[in-house]
């Protein structure tokens, strides 16, 4: 009896790889993230017209905004994601608490995604790939379910070895609700009796602003600004992004040198996160220590290479003449014959001048020569290196550049030296002292606009 063939296993297709329909649209939405970054913030914004704003609550919301923002920029990002510095336990506990108050996931979740972003920037494995559009990199990657198999993997064993990270990840829900909403509400309520205002302004609205500000690191920082260190990927530097993100706006530098605790390296650039980390390192107990700075020499090399790349791009758009390697080699006799034909008015004749071993066609330039037709005409069919480089007139750099656009060939043997050598081989000649071919006048500087 023949064996029954095995039933083929139906392969599961992740919802993100399925088209959106009327029947499955809700499955495409990540409802947990959508609730935290869209639904609850919207509720808080709608409550503003019905909630009085007291000065004390506004000041407290402003202070807590910077604390929770620093929990992301100085904690989640520079401490745990990139290990830009080390922090003692009290500071790590504080950063874990206020970081949870920013409502952006646990340290473990946030850092793993950010490391994948750095490793797989601008690829399909980048969890918030900027090439998929501004909205996707800002919010879309959280609002819609993504196939976890498509996101690049990274090593987070160091995070799993940190008890603060592990504890916060296991108890993130309770920690987040306490830090994001209950704590700011209790401070305002117990402090000056504004319980509801504390929840709305210092809690929900403040968290919404922190979210949108730090999300700009994934979106705005890949869209607005310059690329002084590398233009092969999307990260950019801009003051506006730095202003919005507590100093994280110099993103092109950060992607090139992610282990540097600084995001802004110039004194005039706005980076309160850097200033805060440095301040914490100066305290008696050195709450922050072992601050990492990339070598200045390598930073400047990267800046110079990008500047050179930009200059090369501009240079390539200009006419520098035919490259020497692409020019035909012309003998002295051919050079002279062509010039003689020009002088005799024979068709095909060309006014050629040799300068520094390169033959130039000056036929159309004779009438435009600033020094007059006669002077340049007297050099046709001759080696004018000495005349061009000071014998008659020491020509400017602009003249060298213009001459390079007239190249038509390379003189075989260099200049008239090859002719002298050929004549010497034909007959024996007794040379007087100082008449040897190797004895020459001080060499005039050749054309350098190559």
From TrEMBL:
Compartments where located: Membrane
Catalytically driven reaction(s): octadecanoyl-CoA + 2 Fe(II)-[cytochrome b5] + O2 + 2 H(+) = (9Z)-octadecenoyl-CoA + 2 Fe(III)-[cytochrome b5] + 2 H2O
SMART domains from the UniProt entry: Cyt-b5
Record-annotated Cytochrome b5 heme-binding domain positions: 327-412
Topology in the lipid bilayer: Multi-pass membrane protein
GO terms assigned for molecular function: heme binding; iron ion binding; stearoyl-CoA 9-desaturase activity
GO biological-process terms attached to the record: unsaturated fatty acid biosynthetic process
Main location: membrane
Enzyme class: oxidoreductase
Cofactor list: Fe(2+)
Transmembrane intervals: 29-46, 58-77, 89-110, 179-204
Alphabetized CDD domains for the sequence: Delta9-FADS-like
Keyword Membrane: yes
A GO-annotated cellular component: endoplasmic reticulum membrane
Similarity comment: family membership: Belongs to the fatty acid desaturase type 1 family.
Role played: Stearoyl-CoA desaturase that utilizes O(2) and electrons from reduced cytochrome b5 to introduce the first double bond into saturated fatty acyl-CoA substrates.
Name of this protein: Acyl-CoA desaturase
Organism: Massarina eburnea CBS 473.64
């Amino acid at each position: 009896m023949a064996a029954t063939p095995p039933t083929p296993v139906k392969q599961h297709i992740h919802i993100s790889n399925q088209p959106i329909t009327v029947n499955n649209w809700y499955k495409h939405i990540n409802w947990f993230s959508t609730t935290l970054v869209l639904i609850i913030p919207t509720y808080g914004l709608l409550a503003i017209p019905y909630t009085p704003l007291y000065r004390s609550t506004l000041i407290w919301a402003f202070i807590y905004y910077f604390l929770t923002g620093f929990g992301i920029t100085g904690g989640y990002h520079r401490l745990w994601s990139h290990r830009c510095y080390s922090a003692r336990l009290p500071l790590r506990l504080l950063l874990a608490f206020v970081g949870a108050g920013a409502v952006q996931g646990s340290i473990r979740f946030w850092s793993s995604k950010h490391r994948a972003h750095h490793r797989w920037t601008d690829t399909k494995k980048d969890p918030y790939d900027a090439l998929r559009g501004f909205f996707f990199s800002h919010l879309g990657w959280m609002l819609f379910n993504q196939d976890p198999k498509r996101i690049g993997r990274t090593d987070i064993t160091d995070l799993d070895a940190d008890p603060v990270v592990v504890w916060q990840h296991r108890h993130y829900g309770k920690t987040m609700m306490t830090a994001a909403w209950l704590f700011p509400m209790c401070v305002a309520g117990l402090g000056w009796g504004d319980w509801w205002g504390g929840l709305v302004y210092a809690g929900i609205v403040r968290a919404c602003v922190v979210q949108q500000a730090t999300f700009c690191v994934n979106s705005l920082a890949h869209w607005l600004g310059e690329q002084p260190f590398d233009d092969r990927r999307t990260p950019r530097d801009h003051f506006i992004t730095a202003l919005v993100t507590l100093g994280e706006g110099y993103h092109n530098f950060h992607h090139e040198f992610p282990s540097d605790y600084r995001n802004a390296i110039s004194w005039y650039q706005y980076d309160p996160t850097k200033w805060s980390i440095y301040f914490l390192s100066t305290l008696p107990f050195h709450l922050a220590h072992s601050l990492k700075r990339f070598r200045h020499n390598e930073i400047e090399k990267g800046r110079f290479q990008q500047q050179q790349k930009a200059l090369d791009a501009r240079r390539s758009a200009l006419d520098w003449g035919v490259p020497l390697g692409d020019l035909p080699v012309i003998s002295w006799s051919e050079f002279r014959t062509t010039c003689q034909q020009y002088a005799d008015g024979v068709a095909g004749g060309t006014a050629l001048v040799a300068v520094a071993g390169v033959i130039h066609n000056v036929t159309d330039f004779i009438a435009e020569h600033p020094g007059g037709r006669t002077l340049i005409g007297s050099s046709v069919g001759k080696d004018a290196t000495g005349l061009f480089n000071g014998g008659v007139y020491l020509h400017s750099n602009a003249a060298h550049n213009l001459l390079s656009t007239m190249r038509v060939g390379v003189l075989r043997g260099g200049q008239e030296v090859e002719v002298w050598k050929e004549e010497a081989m034909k007959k024996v000649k007794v040379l007087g002292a100082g008449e040897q071919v190797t004895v020459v006048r001080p060499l005039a500087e050749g054309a350098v606009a190559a």
